[in-house]
Amino acid sequence: MAPEKKYVVEHMEDGISPWVLLEYLAISHDVGGGAKFYLTSLMPSLKMSLPPQLVDPEVATTTSTDVIDLPGVRELAGHGRVCLLDPGATKDLAPQDAQVFDWFVFGGILGDHPPRDRTGELRKYGFEGRRLGPKQMTTDTAIRVVKMVVEDQIPLDKIEYVDFPELRWNKHESTEMPFRYVKDGQTGEPIMPEGMRELIRQDSNRGFDEFV
Ligand code: SAM
Predict the structure, then answer these.
(1) Is the ipTM of this complex over 0.95?
(2) How far apart are CA 103 and CA 134, in angstroms?
(3) pTM for the structure as a whole
(4) Which residues line the pocket of ligand 1, CB cutoff 6 A?
(5) What is the DSSP annotation of 52-80?
């Protein structure tokens, strides 16, 4: 039997914003239990401020946990079978990559528009890179898509997406999210972490150019 896939998010922000927290909780929920989600390079002070679902497997009930922090992704350098999900990679991820990789590394980075290529900081570890198509995804979306490709064996171009959705608040106000999301097969809406719409709505009155 093929080894279980592991998802590693290298936290690359200074603090931990509510946006990032909601994404990490969504990832923890999506990836499921069994030590498959690794949140790396968290400063000890940040770790202390995480909700229990992200640190203590005994406490979680509805969200699965098994979030283990490693010192950082550098620990995986030279391990082999590690894929960096890299918007700058020349090759797109394919279902056959399930035979090639067991570890999938992502930047724990706020999406920005236009993208600043901070994922590039992870290239120095020499991991093989794969792209998830040309459009920027939020970190939780990127993990959702990788799982669909390598675990469910769905090719990238067979996944249904919602690109740059406009979230409408009322007749006059809306917010466009400059990212690609997976489409919810039942509602047709972009899949976002629980609580994210409310957060975006709260922020929609402030100007922002750095997001999620
Ligand atoms: N603007 C960003 C940057 O500076 O690189 C992209 C950050 S994105 C919000 C967070 C992470 O999701 C990336 O570090 C990458 O691992 C993954 N990701 C998002 N979209 C991707 C894509 N189209 N191809 C490959 N990886 C992607």
Answers:
(1) yes
(2) 22
(3) 0.90
(4) 85-87, 106-107, 109, 111-112, 115-119, 131-133, 135-139, 142
(5) HHHH-TTT-SSS---EE--S-GGGGTT-S
